[in-house]
Design a protein that fits this description.
5-stranded mixed beta sheet
Amino acid sequence: MRFNEDNKSVTKSIDRTALDVVKYMTGGQITLSTAESCTGGMFSASVTAVSGASAIFLGGAVVYSEEMKIKLLGVSEDTLKRYTVYSEQTAREMSRGVRLLTGSDCSVGITGIAGPQGGTLEKPIGTVYVSVDFREKNVTRDLMLYKEYGNLDRESVRRLTVLKTLELLLETIRSFEWEGK
């Protein structure tokens, strides 16, 4: 499938899904924190654009450099050397690190290759790892945007990552809350 949605329809989907996330988390009194790399704060901005987000959103960190991932979030240097910054292991350590740093119930870690440089045959542009940490449980995925949408520009990778992360967050907290009942 090719990416054929324009920015307006993706933005509407982001806005609608962010509203659903904030409503659900507010109802469940679930707090949220974020650690973002390739989205550069766009995910946090989508959540905080929703009125009432202050009831759930504790804070976020844009950690673009490896040094900040290590210093702020406690990402292991060994993880970065063995798996690279673009890996599920790094995303998982980012989400865990920001959850522990802020004391939130739930956290999101995002790292990936938005382009236009940086892609390889093994990890092309659109390789994005997202991790959701929720009360000691974790779900981490490679969104593989390049497979679903083909060639994407930087802005499209970032916007689609925000949308897919919001969807994964909502799916994860609903699933884990249901398991606990």
